[in-house]
Amino acid sequence: MATKIKKIIASVLAALLLVPVFGCLAEAPLSVKAAEKEFKGHKLVAENENYVLYMREAGLSVIVYDKTSGACMESAVSYDDGKNNTQWMGAMQSALVLNLIYSNVDTQQADLINDDITQDVSYTDNGFSARVYWNKYKLGMTLEVTLNEDGITARIPDESIVEEGETYIGTIALYPYLGYSYLDEKEGYMLLPDGNGALIYLDDKEGRFNTGYTGLVYGTDTGFEDSDTTRLWWNKYEMVNEANNVLAPVFGMAHTSEGIAYLAVVEKGDQRAAIEASPNGVSIDYNRIYARFTERRLYTQPTSNNSTSGSFKMVETDRSHSDLQVRYLFLNGDQANYCGMANAYRNYLLKSGFLKVLPDEYRTRVDFLGTEREAWIVGTSSVVMTTVEDIKEIYADLEQEGVKDLLSVYKGWQKGGLYNVPITAYKADSEIGGTKSLTELIKDSEARGIKMYLYSDAMRINPSEQNATFNVVKKINKRKLEETTHKDVYERFMWLTPARTGSLLDKFVKSYTKSGVNGLALGGITDTLYSYNYSGVFYSRHQCAESYYNTAAKVDESTDLVLQQPFAYLWDHTESFLDMPLYTSSYIFEDESVPFLSIVLKGIMPVYSEYVNFEANKQEFFLKMVETGTCPSYLITKASSADLIYTNSSDIYSSEYSVYRDDIISYAKELEAVHEKTAGASIVGHEIREGGITVVTYDNGVKIYLNYSTGAQSADGHTLEGMSYLVDR
């Protein structure tokens, strides 16, 4: 209680003094008086109707002042608690913090405070440009900062980066302390792009954590790292779930007590960027979140094909080539929160053309598994799970129960079963009914308003079934890039080069659409991005992303295309988002899970959940779908999932239609009724209250109340039973 009283007194005194020790609240918003020429040791370099940009040449630190709220965010720590060494202080004052590589080992930090640098700053109408050169290391680059109507943009042009000595740039952290806070001196949080979205509160963590968050944008780079599962029971069964990929290159900082926030979008260099966030207590007592760009990486090079014979460290021959750019979209007032960040990102994507508005239709997703393979005396034998006739019967049964708005992805339809990849021609397995029967099913389904898509993993090749001697990628160390499955039938897969993926997919699409059908669901290339070696030539993630984007764009021209958990750079080429994660990776330092991506996409694109079958708490998962406006997804088989025990799909432990029939029907009726009231509307408010209550507000006035607690709760005059929801029009 005494501590709380002290904090209240300190807050009152700070308000009376008008300029808090750590805050930026001025005597009056600068919109009503001329901007100060200097502010907290920084000089004014640009101003517009909304913001003022201040800069200090020492360290190139900036202050962004919001005229509306009278608050600001700083990039350089203005308070030293006396606990930090010279290296930390250099990082906390610098716009650029480099990690260097010398003699194939990671070396020390380089910054703009501790090192001998030559710096040339020039000013523009809306910002500044600074040429920086580290004399000792013979490294240099140009930093450009521009004030926009919605915030600032920080950019390092690729052509400005020089390495003229024997020391190389490993990584570049860009404004690593912009919007920082000290211990719990501010209320607010950091937004992480983990899963659907997560928050780290700006409270005092009391030294509980020794590590923060590092999320590589667009997932792990398997060209450098091992793709095998590392935690197995009996060397076979996975015991730990993989972390969620970073699907969108964003992060955020909110100082809710001061009514200011920003959403940062990594606009360029995102393919080799990582989002890093550290709560206070991780090395130092400051909360910070930022983007770190990789220019070169070290990797392990074996000395021979015998993995036990030794290895040595090597550095990439050439650095990454891309501009590095982060746009900071500033927010104030009632938008200075994670929902405001999501709205800002949606508007940014629409304005930039990275997202298109699609019909907001409700459908229940019922996917089917056709055939699999199990080991036999010689070779493999077919395991038939769901035939064309089975699907017809299931559709008829659901339609009779009033479930007519369906979307289906048919997996394992191809000759040879689910893992006979890549698919190069439209040939259905005879065990499911053959090509003619499948074509008739697709056309008949379309006539009845059912959307049906055939699934293709366009990235992988099965060396047990197809010739994988050519057109497959290697890791950077020139060793085969192999994906180990730890399954009984097919123990490994290899990855096609992006160029080969494009040519084979083009061949398949022509064969498929020639039959008068065009529903296609793509996986593999949609949620994987990597560096690789092919025929002795290094290809970066930038090149891989460009190739996959061009492939998706071409396929989109001739098919009705949907993508499986697509990365953000592909969102303009999918008609639906499949497999949206509704949770996070549940890192110990995360304080709250929030539906950031769902808020971005609701009302813009149909979004489908991951499979309901495999959710442990189906009641909570149902409420999550109501909360986020997400359509449910099921993976269904006519035969018992027990038949899959000796196949590579042995992890599908529950899928039989007879088990999920009633759930599919009841979920469809309830969720479609909710959708009727929110169709075409966007989420503009999302509030997590005490007692397990969440309130979602749409721009058409609809409010949805959800009670995640087991007991009855009241909110705004409504009473909700435990684990229930209410739609208020």
List the main descriptive attributes of the protein structure presented here.
alpha+beta, 10 helices, 11-stranded antiparallel sheet, 729 residues, 8-stranded parallel beta barrel, disordered N terminus, Beta-galactosidase, Chain A, domain 5
Task: Provide structural commentary.
The protein is α+β, with helices and mostly antiparallel strands and 729 residues long. It has a domain of 322 residues: Beta-galactosidase, Chain A, domain 5 (Distorted Sandwich). The protein is 19% helix and 34% strand. It has ten helices and 48 strands. Strands 8, 9, 10, 11, 12, 15, 16, 20, 21, 26 and 40 form an eleven-stranded antiparallel beta sheet that branches. Strands 27-30-31-35-38-39-41-42 form an eight-stranded parallel beta barrel. A hairpin with a 2-residue loop joins strand 1 and strand 2. Helix 6 packs parallel to helix 7. The longest helix is centred in the last third of the chain and has 22 residues. The radius of gyration is 27 Å and the shape is globular.
